[in-house]
From TrEMBL:
Transcription among keywords: no
UniProt keywords, alphabetically: ATP-binding, Nucleotide-binding, Repeat
InterPro entries named in the record: AAA+_ATPase, ABC_tran_Xtn, ABC_transporter-like_ATP-bd, ABCF, P-loop_NTPase
Stretches assigned to the ABC transporter domain: 33-392, 493-722
Annotated organism of origin: Oidiodendron maius (strain Zn)
Name of the featured protein: ABC transporter domain-containing protein
Pfam families listed in its UniProt record: ABC_tran, ABC_tran_Xtn
Residue segments, region Disordered: 116-139, 413-444, 695-715
Acidic residues: bias regions: 699-714
Low complexity compositional bias, start-end: 117-127
UniProt keyword Nucleotide-binding, yes or no: yes
Amino acid sequence: MNSSPEELASTILVSSKQTRFHIENPVYQELDIEGLNISVATGAGKSGAKPKGKARSDGLEILANASLKLKAGIHYALIGRNGTGKSTILKAVAEKLIPGIPLKTRISILQQTSTNEALSGSSSEAGELSKEPPSGGQLSVLETVIDRATSRNEIQQEIDVLSKGVEDTGNHLAPIRALRQVQHDRLKKELFEADKDARHRSGSRGMAARKTLIAVEKKVVESTARLEQNETEINEETLKEETLAASDLLAELQSQLEPGKIAEIEAKARSILSGLGFPPAFLVKQVSTLSGGWKMRTNLAGCLLQPTDILILDEPTNFLDLLGIIWLQRYLLQLREIGPNPPTVVIVSHDRDFINTVCQELIILRDHDLTYFRGDLNVYEASIRDKKLYLGRMKDAQEKQKAHIQKTIQQNIKQGKAAGDENKLRQAKSRQKKLDDRMGMQKSATGGRFKLNRDLAGFHFTSRAEIDIPADEKSVSINLPEPPDLRFPGSLISLEKVDFKYPAARKGPTQPTILQGIDLTIHMGDRIGIVGLNGCGKSTLIKLLTDTTKPTTGTATHHPRLRMGYYSQHAVEDLQALGHAEPELTALALLTRDVGGELSESELRGLLGSLGLPGRTASDVPLTKLSGGQVVRLALARLLWGAPQLLVLDEITTHLDFHTVTALAEALSSWAGAILVVSHDRFFVRRVVQGVKDRVEGEEGEEEEEEEEDDEEEEVRRRIVYVLKGGVMKVLPNGVASFEESLEKRVQKLLAS
């Protein structure tokens, strides 16, 4: 995930269909690439050379003969299950490894990385591979964001070199030495890009790229010679021309960093950082001192600020609270109205509400292919359900009709042979031909009625395609073990008049109160949701619930037979760190170590399989090779093997695709135990805590039986959503929607300021 450019080039293998015609597309926000193949090599050499022939098929195949189509200014959501290669596709686009992406296309990408490498996102502009934080990350947050948008640090370095040369009155060659040094450094960057382009192009494009590379190499050689020229080799005319050129270039660079322009960019950077939740004091902090979450937000701010043709955001809502998510939604919606050429946006996110609000079209990655759908996730899922229902009914009706006709044919054959009636046999043969020709899809590929003389192309065993009912696109089903009985009644957890503040230092100031007046009781079967902005005290409340800290005042009691399963928001990072410490450790081995012999291997495999880690995935794949979603499933297995009655889930959706989030929400909704959810994912809170199923606008309530079951369930299940603000916890009468409405008003003020 955090590969260097050289590693990336050697492991991601890309090819696409090329045309022999020379086509110039001035709309850089638009892509139309056919025959796209992307795979990740498992044994690429250090040389970076791409394997040819059959070697290309080795490794993991991501796309096979797919079509990548992006329309200018449209916001897309790339959806697909964990581990199918969404991030790899985005990297291939951002690094311009795909033939057909113009080198002048400006592409900004926020990469989904580990928190330790959160600032490694790249920005490709006019062939520029990446902009790493200069000076080893010694810049402040504000300076880093501005530098990514303006290349201020790079321009300032060139200004410093030229200024030193122009102002050196004691050496008349200093200006041209400085000019030649700046030009040489630029040529070296151009050489790197030309070399990368030549290595990733083939055919006519490859030939043109290699010619360009040879030309740039020649320029670098000439530039090196000019740098090493002696004073006696430089004539008076060259001296005057290049001295003037040095002064002109210095003036041009200084104009790019005019205080007025920088002030305008700085104001916009401050606005973006504020919207993403940065307190003013954080803007002057060095990026290297920040946690992974804040580094990721710094990177996101840089991507949003810089000019771009294609903006790629891989899980941008990670580490954002709901205020930041809503602000980002509004900001991306405003991008559509910017100028005549708004950027094309491609987003990968597990947050269903975020996708539904921001994205106009879906790109569905499935079975190594890309398909497209205009609409949001709810409409897409409804269309899939409708299509499956329609095709299922059609297939059932045709099977009945086919059985009836086949029976008639058999009767005709039997009667014809018995009576020697050739007409009966011919009639049976004719009916069999009609049966073969007319059974199958009733519509053509264009959606119209199927016509044999128009829609039958090529050789078929039958005239029409078989009715293919789409397979269920949800992730693997998740089955949760039922919780054991408590044997005697009582609340699972009870907090009464709880206050909490950290102990004050002996001679230090009094510590502020983090939580005050907290009353919370959780019974078997309850659904409790906790929402609030970052820093409001949710983590402290969880520590009180899990008995890892004690209240300053008030009482916290737990049922004596309570078994609790706690999913920490850092569970994935902790397991990944454990995997790096023990490279051979697998999910099954870790779980076996956890249970200490209380469960057999077959029982552990059954648990892992029910959560989506079957067979060899559990026993043979090291933790370091598991996807984020698979690590979440392992973390769940570590909670569930002890059969808890209460699950405390802190940001469990962060590393899951939306299919898995949906499957997990469905499993939790029907689970008999109690659940406390802390999450910024509005869909997850609505479904698990409030028991609300999202409906497509205009869709009739087709599941009346399920609604009746939900009504019966409401009689025995408490569903409450609390908001934490300023250490005080209050009930939200309309659930997460109330919290969302209050934040919408705050975002409007932020964007208006």
